[in-house]
Fold this protein.
Amino acid sequence: MKTKSIYTCKSCGYQSPRWLGKCPDCGEWDTFYEELTEKPSERTVGTMQSQALKPQLISLNDVHMSQEIRFSSGMAELDRVLGGGIVAGSLVLVGGEPGIGKSTLLLQICAHISNKVLYVSGEESPSQIKLRAKRLHIENEAISLLCTTDLNEIVAALESARPSLVIVDSVQTVSNPQMNSAPGTVSQIKEITMTLMRIAKSTGITVFIVGHVTKEGAIAGPRVLEHMVDCVLYFEGDNNHIFRLLRAIKNRFGSTNEVGVFEMEETGLTEVANPSAALFEHKDTTASGSCITCTMEGSRPFLTEIQALVTPTFFPVPRRTASGIDYNRMVLLMAVLEKRIKLSLSNYDAYINIVGGMRITEPAADLSIAMAIYSNYKDIVLPSNHAFLGEIGLSGEIRPVSLINTRIKEAKKLGIDHIVIPYANLNKCNDISGVIGVKNIGEAIRTISN
Ligand code: TYD
Ligand code: MG
């Protein structure tokens, strides 16, 4: 075996025989680091040696399917995201920004498991973990701690203790000392994940690993990690927002459309079973510029309030501020309002806010954004039993939206009985009581004036 230097990009895993300032694959600057690799001295593939192997082939029809064994994490929201509970022997990656609550969530899972659990931390000391456990009122005899950054120690602990669940917090801090590269590099992360995957599959131990995210929001130690694991969960939200959303980005045992909703409180994360009601609680029913819509997070409907403030400006260039929606979408919708229904918005500053710190990326909320702007501009209060759904095209037409029945059902559950939807969606509605179909933005506005 000969050793050879190879340069690997930290961000995407691209490899080059020499150092590069900019990665030709992902375009990141200064991400290459040197690794020593061992090169096989001779080609073995296709030689007599491989021809001597006798791989066992199995007919697909003869494969017996064993039902996967699932157990509950004790949190219905997490079980829902995982597709109906934790699958025994699976490897789950939990990603998210620092301070979002990954360690808290995983420690809370430990509290609910009655079998042996091993919590491995490369970041915190036992007393720090104990402090968190005290805040969460966790006193579970079955939880053992291991504070190490050495992969070999983790493997040895798993072999001797044989827990049913192990948590590795975080994958970036653990390393295999036999390898030349530093912790957190692509080759270390691959090695750790592969080792844990092998253990999970051969022993049935369920593994949860925490992965930090880069400034751009991707799980650091690039996508290679996401390809290897069974599930990738992503925890998002920030301290100023009410909700923390747990999304499945990848799930080999269920749908990726599920979203779990949590709230961070003094004593840890609590589940929010009915987020629409929580968002709806503090709505001011007397102010203009507020409009209700129903957005989808995966397959889950959220009743959301859009707020707009439109005020005269004294500056030549009016201000536009969008919080929770795309700025360009806001400008586009204002241009449509200006052109199609002659709202002269060019002398007005405009601010849009989505209540509760939600982020809306789907165009189905277009009509409600336009209605909130219109409502504040004309100072007309939209009744709190009205909701608006629909995508707006450049000619002011209202285009159909997906999952219309789920959205209508959610709105009705919270007492909304006047739902304006795209006309093209009407024939797909199961229940059209209180539902009004509109073809363009002018028609939508007329539904509130009569
Ligand atoms: P943590 O779980 O350590 O986040 P991560 O592991 O993702 O970096 O902590 C999340 C934040 O939540 C931390 O700033 C403190 C706060 N927190 C609470 O508000 N209540 C609690 O009960 C706990 C344990 C933490
Ligand atoms: Mg942590």
User: Anything to note?
Assistant: The CA atoms of residues 303 and 411 lie 7 Å apart. The radius of gyration is 27 Å.
